[in-house]
Design a protein that fits this description.
By secondary structure, this protein is an alpha/beta fold. The chain contains 13 helices and 23 strands. InterPro entries: Apiosidase-like_cat_dom, Collagen-bd_put, GH.
Length: about 475
C-alpha cells in the first residue's frame, strides 16, 4: 500500500476508532478516555499526554502572588497537570490563616459570601482554592484535586456520611470548571477506609459527570487493586514510591516490584476492562532514598527520568514528576519541614529533572499516538535486570527503546512497517537527536549508545519507517 494512502486511512481510522467515551462537555478543553482505553484525549480528539507536577501543599502554603509564580513556571516547562491536596489535614488553614472547616468536620466547610481577592474579610479558604484553579485555567493547566488526604480517613477523622456531604460540596463548586481532575484517596491503601473512598468516588461521579476521576494509592501499590472495576474510576494510578530495591518492605504485598515501576504499569495494562494507567508518584527529585533518613543519598534527575521513560514505554498514558521542596512548598523559615529539603521551593522549581520532563512529553507527541503499544519483543536476546533493563514501545511506523545505563543492546527489526528504518539517538537530558543512519528493516542489529555505560547515561533509540 502506498504510504500516502496508508496515512489517509490511518487518519480516518483514528477519528472513528479513537474517539472519546464521554461527551466533551467543555469542548476542546474536555479530558476524555480514548476509545481504545489506553490514553487520554482532549475534546477535539487530540492526544493529551499527562505531564504532572506534584504540588501537594500549594493551596495551604502559597499566597496569591506565589501561586501565580509557581503556575507560570510550570506552564513554561510544559507541565499540564498539577496534583494538589484540597485538605492536607482535618482541619486545614492556608497562608492567610483561613480555616477550611467548622470544628474539623469535612461536612461543614467554612464558606463566606463573596470571593473578591481584594476583600480580606470575604476571601476564605475555598475562595483561595478558586483563585488558584482559575489562575491555572488562564495558563492552560489542569488541577488534579485530592479531596482529603488519606491519613485523615485512616485515623477515623472522616466518616462515610461526612464524606458524602463533602463530596457533594466539592462537585457542586467545581463541576463547571473545565480544568479539574479528581484524585480520590491520597497516599493510602484502598482497604484503609474502603467505604469512605467508595462514597467519595460514587458521590463525585453522581454529581459531576464532566471530569475524570481516579484513586491515588499508597507507595508501592496500585489503585487498581481496589478500584479497577469501580464504575467511578476512569483510569488507574500507581504510586511506585521513594525506596530503593533494598529498601522495599512491601514483600507481603500482591505487587512487589521495588524500583521497577514499569512492572506496575505492565500489570495494570493487562487488566480487564481496559483502562489507562499512570505512575502518579515515583521518587521525588531531591528526596532521601527511603524518605525518612535525611542522611541518605538523594534521588536525582537521572532517577526521575528513568521512572518516566520506564513507565511510559511500559504503556502509561503520561507521567507525574515530583520534587521534595516543591511538593511541600518549602521555605527556610519552616519549623518542621518533611524529609530534609535542602532548598526553597522557588529555587527547586528549576531543578534539572523539572526542566527535562518536557523532553519526554515532546518525544511521545512527536509520533503517531493512539497506535502506540509496549513491546518487549523489540529487544533481541536476553534483556538486563534492574537498571540494565531496556524498555521498548512502538507504533505502526516507529519504535523506541530506552536504556538507563547506555549499555549496548540488540534490536529485532521488522516490527514496524517499511523496507528500511532510520535510526536516531534521542538524549533525554537535552531533548536533542543524533543521527545514526538508515538500515534494512529485518534481522537483528546491535546498537551502541554514545558514551560509556553508567547509571544516568540514558538514551532512547528511535527507529522510524523509511
Amino acid at each position: 500500500m502506498k504510504i500516502k494512502s496508508k496515512i489517509f486511512l490511518l487518519s480516518i481510522l483514528a477519528l472513528l476508532t479513537f474517539g472519546c467515551k464521554r461527551e466533551a462537555h467543555f469542548g476542546d478543553k474536555s479530558l476524555l478516555v480514548s476509545e481504545n482505553g489506553r490514553y487520554l484525549t482532549t475534546g477535539d480528539g487530540k492526544p493529551f499526554f499527562w505531564l504532572g507536577d506534584t504540588a501537594w501543599l500549594l493551596f495551604s502554603r502559597l499566597n496569591r502572588d506565589e501561586v501565580n509564580t509557581y503556575l507560570e513556571d510550570r506552564k513554561q516547562k510544559r507541565f499540564n497537570v498539577i496534583q494538589v491536596m484540597v485538605l492536607h489535614d482535618v482541619q486545614s488553614r492556608n497562608t492567610y490563616l483561613d480555616s477550611s472547616l467548622v470544628r474539623a468536620d469535612v461536612s461543614k466547610p467554612v464558606v463566606t459570601p463573596g470571593n473578591n481577592p481584594q476583600d480580606t474579610v470575604a476571601y476564605d479558604y475555598w475562595d483561595h482554592i478558586d483563585y488558584a484553579v482559575d489562575k491555572a485555567a488562564e495558563k492552560g493547566l489542569y488541577m488534579a484535586l485530592v479531596p482529603v488526604w488519606g491519613t485523615n480517613v485512616k485515623v477515623g477523622k472522616v466518616s462515610a456520611a461526612q464524606a458524602k456531604v463533602y463530596a457533594e460540596f466539592l462537585a457542586k463548586r467545581y463541576k463547571d470548571k473545565w480544568n479539574i481532575i479528581w484524585l480520590n484517596g491520597g497516599d493510602i491503601k484502598g482497604s484503609d477506609g474502603l467505604k469512605v473512598w467508595n462514597t467519595i468516588g460514587e458521590t463525585l461521579r453522581k454529581n459531576d459527570t464532566n471530569h475524570l476521576l481516579t484513586f491515588h494509592p499508597r507507595g508501592r501499590t496500585a489503585g487498581s487493586a481496589w478500584f479497577h472495576k469501580a464504575k467511578w474510576n476512569d483510569f488507574d494510578m500507581i504510586q511506585s514510591g521513594h525506596r530503593r530495591y533494598d529498601q522495599d518492605t512491601s514483600k507481603n504485598e500482591k505487587l512487589h516490584y521495588g524500583e521497577d515501576n514499569w512492572k506496575y504499569i505492565e500489570s495494570d495494562y493487562k487488566l480487564k476492562p481496559t483502562k489507562p494507567t499512570i505512575d502518579g508518584e515515583p521518587s521525588y527529585e531531591g528526596i532521601p532514598q527511603g524518605l525518612h533518613d535525611t542522611t541518605e543519598v538523594r534521588w536525582t534527575a537521572a532517577d526521575v527520568r528513568r521512572y518516566g521513560y520506564w513507565s511510559v514505554f511500559a504503556g502509561a498514558f503520561g507521567y507525574t514528576y515530583g520534587n521534595n521542596a516543591v511538593m511541600q512548598m518549602h521555605k527556610f523559615t519552616d519549623k518542621k519541614p518533611a524529609y530534609g529539603p535542602k532548598e526553597e521551593w522557588a529555587t527547586a522549581i528549576n531543578a534539572p529533572g523539572a526542566k527535562q520532563m518536557q523532553y519526554l512529553k515532546n518525544l511521545m507527541l512527536s509520533r503517531s499516538y493512539f497506535d502506540r503499544v509496549p513491546d518487549q519483543t523489540l529487544i533481541a536476546g536476553e534483556n538486563g535486570e534492574k537498571y540494565d533493563r531496556v524498555l521498548g514501545t512502538r507504533g505502526e511506523e516507529f519504535a523506541m527503546l530506552y536504556t538507563y545505563t547506555g549499555r549496548n543492546f540488540s534490536v529485532q527489526l521488522g516490527k514496524i512497517d517499511g523496507d528500511d528504518v532510520k535510526a536516531t539517538w534521542f538524549n533525554p537530558r537535552t531533548g536533542k537527536n543524533i543521527a545514526i543512519g538508515v538500515f534494512e528493516n529485518k534481522g537483528i542489529k546491535a546498537f551502541n549508545p554514545p558514551g560509556e555505560p553508567a547509571n544516568g547515561n540514558d538514551w532512547v533509540l528511535v527507529l522510524d519507517s523509511e
